[in-house]
Write a structure and sequence with these properties.
With about 375 residues, the protein is an alpha/beta fold. It has a single domain, classed as TIM Barrel, CATH 3.20.20.210. It contains 15 helices and nine strands. It has a seven-stranded parallel β-sheet with strand order 1-4-5-6-7-8-9. A two-stranded antiparallel sheet has the order 2-3. Helix 13 packs parallel to helix 14. The protein is globular and about 60 Å long.
Length: about 375
């Protein structure tokens, strides 16, 4: 992709999210929500019905643009995230991705033996053109309102689905390969890492203003396996990513490992700007380990309220928002130097059963309480 279309991107009106990613002081704590475009919104369900299937939605540029913007029409969120799926890369490798209604993703051809691993290669990005076209379309439709986040699954998380063929309770097949044939697992992870890097760079070239790596299943690994099989390949992706986007601005990189809180000191060395945390980790503790000092290097933190808080009544949601914001500690307010910052988010994706009105309460509470902490 050339950067020929960049002149048609409107200037950014709200850069609060990007500033927080770069550990710059902001007037309030910005927020966006994992799976903010999704089944909890009736308008999303209506569009998905029109599209006929999940992949019908994800592969149609107009539909993907429409559903990405739906949550922003309802809530004053500080970032949009591309509507897509973490499994587009293995699908482009020819594994045959499908989604049955009410079920998770499935691969027609899982990767379980030496021959299947040997056949894997970085896919032609033309097969993922529908994703990059959607990035450009969404960026134009946003018209500078908020930044657009691109994303991919991590090499390890992709490998889990590729070997298991679907989601798993015990990860028996993928861990059997990891322990009995680590050579095959490393080969698959190398291909995955290089594919993810090319894919994220294509999203950056198409207009993504930040990118996120979802290591959704990193936390299922044993200590001692997480480092060589997940962390090392996330690092391999990061090392290959473009540092600036089509508009010449730095593109922050976010890494989120669900269940990864116990390895924060290992993740401190990752070449990324932001670390995402699930709800099991105390933000103040994380800040001490990786947040850095005012004026020094460190990671911005993203998270980390329990998504199930959104089923509680409004006063309980407000109290929990205040608790999470307060747990981070005093916000960084000196605009002349970097310092510890937080991007508010859920500790994992929003549940499809979440009442949309409760999300409005959460967004309002984050903006109000975090402004109050800076006065």
């Amino acid at each position: 992709m050339s950067s020929a279309h960049t002149s048609s991107f409107a200037p950014l009106k709200n850069d609060t999210f990007l500033r927080a990613c770069m550990r710059q002081a902001t007037d309030y704590t910005p927020l966006w929500l994992m799976r903010q475009a999704g089944r909890y919104l009736p308008e999303y369900c209506a569009t998905r019905t029109k599209a006929g299937s999940f992949m019908g939605l994800a592969t149609n540029v107009d539909y993907a643009t429409e559903v990405t913007l739906q949550p922003l029409a309802r809530y004053p969120l500080d970032a949009a995230i591309l509507f897509s799926d973490i499994l587009t890369v293995p699908d482009a490798m020819g594994l045959g991705l499908s989604f049955a209604l009410g079920e998770g993703p499935r691969f027609a051809s899982p990767v379980r033996d030496e021959a299947a691993v040997a056949k894997l290669e970085v896919p032609d990005m033309d097969k993922l053109r529908y994703v990059t076209d959607a990035v450009t379309s969404i960026r134009k439709a946003l018209n500078g309102r908020v930044p657009l986040i691109g994303f991919s699954g991590s090499p390890w998380t992709l490998a889990c689905y590729m070997v298991e063929g679907k989601g798993s309770d015990d990860y028996r097949l993928v861990k059997t390969m990891l322990y009995s044939r680590p050579d095959l697992m490393h080969r698959m992870l190398q291909v995955n890492a290089d594919a993810v890097a090319v894919y994220l760079n294509a999203q950056i070239d198409a207009g993504a203003q930040a990118v996120m790596i979802f290591d959704s299943w990193g936390g299922v690994l044993a200590d001692g396996a997480f480092q060589p099989f997940s962390l090392a390949y996330t690092a391999r992706v990061l090392a290959q990513l473009k540092r600036t986007g089509v508009d010449g601005q730095i593109v922050p990189r976010i890494v989120f490992t669900k269940g990864g809180g116990l390895w924060l000191s290992d993740m401190k060395a990752l070449d990324c700007e932001v670390l995402g945390l699930d709800w099991t980790m105390n933000l103040g503790t994380a800040r001490k380990i990786v947040g850095g000092d005012v004026g020094g290097p460190g990671k911005a933190l993203q998270g980390n309220i329990d998504p199930n808080v959104l089923f509680a009544p409004p006063e309980a949601i407000r109290a929990e928002v205040a608790r999470v914001l307060d747990s981070f500690g005093l916000p960084h307010t000196d605009r002349s130097i970097p310092g510890p910052t937080q991007i508010f988010n859920l500790g994992h994706g929003i549940s499809q059963y979440t009442p949309p009105d409760n999300v409005a309460v959460l967004v309002e509470a984050v903006h109000t309480h975090s402004r109050g902490r800076r006065t």
